[in-house]
Amino acid sequence: MKHVSILPLYEATVTSIDSSHQILNRVNDFMAYQGRPPFYQVEIVGLEEKTSMGGGIYDIRVDKTIDRVPKTDLIVLPLLCGNFPEAISKNQPYKDWVVAQYHSGAEILCLCVGSFFLASTGLLAGRKCAVHWASTNEFKTLFPEVEVVDDGIISDEKGIYTCGGGYSYLNLLLYILEKHMGKEISILASKMFEIDIERKSQNPFMIFVGQKRHGDEAVLKVQEYIENNPTEVFSVDAMCEKAGIGRRTFERRFKKSTGNSIAEYIQRVKVEFAKKHLEMGRKTVNEIIYETGYNDVEAFRKVFKRFTDLSPIDYKRRFA
């Protein structure tokens, strides 16, 4: 039987703690129905006997304090909400225990932006981590040594599992069930809890927000110009001219500062413009594409699908 420790971290959401507790325990019921022994022993493991959460709205009583758990097999780090630097600081008393358990063979299941605390332990250095698209820029600033995955939902690397996207942690829970117990149990849990097992990407939900906390005024000037004029037809050379810097040098600075090439940044801004108008549902897809400055409809469809995983018409059907 695998011992599971769910940590009631400071600034954690009660829903992510409760969902993990319910789903992993429910799996034991599935096993009982099949005449098999329970697979998980699930406990909430904290610093004190009682943890106050949600600004004092909720109290969670732990099963054990961490000093009474010398060995665990799976650590669940819940989704955090609020000020990440403050949450990292307040949760430092967990750090040594989490690191020691990992080096003793425990796996770590990190739900969404619980990754901010996990990264602060140093365990993600040089590794991939799925991060919610809205937190990517802040995460990259705080932890440049981590390889961020901001389009996929799940990362799996050396016993550390992370996910990006608010309630995509439900998909991560299904993923670990499949990893531990096979596809049949994962599908059963998907059906019982009505979780879409096929959800693989954040792209349809992502809102592009350019990284602007880089301190390069020339790059920032061009970013703001592109964003303020999404229907204009741009060229990379024209943007370099606006910055007053040679193309090779400016392209290098732009990519370093924003994480995108100039051409890709232009495409992302135009896709966001198109998405907003598709959501309104008042114009045809082709009318919106022409408004973005594209004359080649098929070329824009390909760009749109690359960033959203959906065609413009499918996006309109889903979100309009």
Task: Please indicate the count of domains.
Answer: 2
Rg, alpha carbons: 23 Å
Q: What distance separates the N and C termini?
A: 47 Å
Query: Element order, helices and strands?
Result: EHEEEEEHHEHEHEEEHHHHHHHHH
Give the number of DSSP strands.
Answer: 11
Query: What is the count of DSSP helices, taking H or I runs of 4+ residues?
Result: 14
Kindly name the structural category: alpha/beta
Named at the architecture level, the CATH assignment of the largest domain is 3-Layer(aba) Sandwich
- In the CATH hierarchy, what is the class of the largest domain? Alpha Beta
| Helix content percent band | 40-55%
Structure summary:
Keywords: DNA-binding, Transcription, Transcription regulation. The chain is 47% helix and 14% strand.
Annotate the secondary structure layout.
Blueprint: E1 2-6, H1 14-33, E2 40-46, E3 50-53, E4 58-61, E5 64-65, E6 74-77, H2 84-90, H3 95-103, E7 107-110, H4 115-120, E8 128-130, H5 136-142, E9 147-149, E10 154-157, E11 160-163, H6 169-181, H7 183-193, H8 217-228, H9 236-243, H10 247-258, H11 262-280, H12 285-291, H13 297-308, H14 312-319
